[in-house]
Amino acid sequence: EIFAENRNKKFDYTIARAGELNMGEARGVKEIEFNQGMDKNGIVSRLDFADVLVNAGFDSSAGGVTFECYYRDTAQPVDMFASLQKCQAMGKSTEQCFFGDKFSDGKPPSLDELLAGAQEGSIFTSGREVYGKDNFGSMFAMLSKDRDEQIDLGSLGMGTS
């Protein structure tokens, strides 16, 4: 009956790729980062990722997109060297690439400086990050719709055989 009622409807898709899932508590939308491009990964709780999925199912702006989901302060590049080059090409210092936007004075931050406050910006900026806002709808709306493009699996460290 459900199939018959929806036979002529066009359904969309959302591909959300979780970072490493953990059993931790929910940290909320403001801690989450989406990224498109398979060049960053991180950690996200099962609770927060489930919240992303439920919200995506009810938000039309999440249709036709693919993205990675993780906590902003756990972001790690898939390819450190390529990510550092891309980040620096965007005009960021090495310190900003590794530790966030508030570290731009040209000297490595101390552990106390790293732990003293919230991270500003993204680590290893790719230019495709969407940061946690007040709600997931505003984040979904900032994602680029998928398009057909060839991906070189060799560049991802995957063999083609």
Helix content: 25-40%
Overall residue-averaged pLDDT value:
83
Q: In percent, how much strand structure appears in the residues?
A: 15-25%
Order of helices and strands: HEEEEEHEEHHHEH
Describe the structure.
The structure is a single chain. With 161 residues, the protein is of the alpha/beta class. It has helices at residues 2-6, 46-57, 80-89, 94-99, 111-115, 136-142; strands spanning 14-18, 20-22, 32-35, 40-41, 43-45, 65-71, 76-77, 129-131. The strands form three sheets. Strands 1-6-3-8 form a four-stranded mixed sheet, covered by helices on one side. Strands 2-5 form a two-stranded parallel sheet. A two-stranded antiparallel sheet has the order 4-7. It is globular. The mean pLDDT is 83.
Question: Could you give a quick summary of the protein structure above?
Answer:
The strands form three sheets. This protein has a four-stranded mixed β-sheet, with helices on one face. Strands 2-5 form a two-stranded parallel ribbon. The longest helix is centred in the N-terminal third of the chain and has 12 residues, at about 45-55. It is of the alpha/beta class and about 160 residues long.
Using brief descriptors, characterize the structure shown.
161 residues, alpha/beta, four-stranded mixed β-sheet, two-stranded parallel ribbon
How are the elements arranged and paired?
Blueprint: H1 2-6, E1 14-18, E2 20-22, E3 32-35, E4 40-41, E5 43-45, H2 46-57, E6 65-71, E7 76-77, H3 80-89, H4 94-99, H5 111-115, E8 129-131, H6 136-142
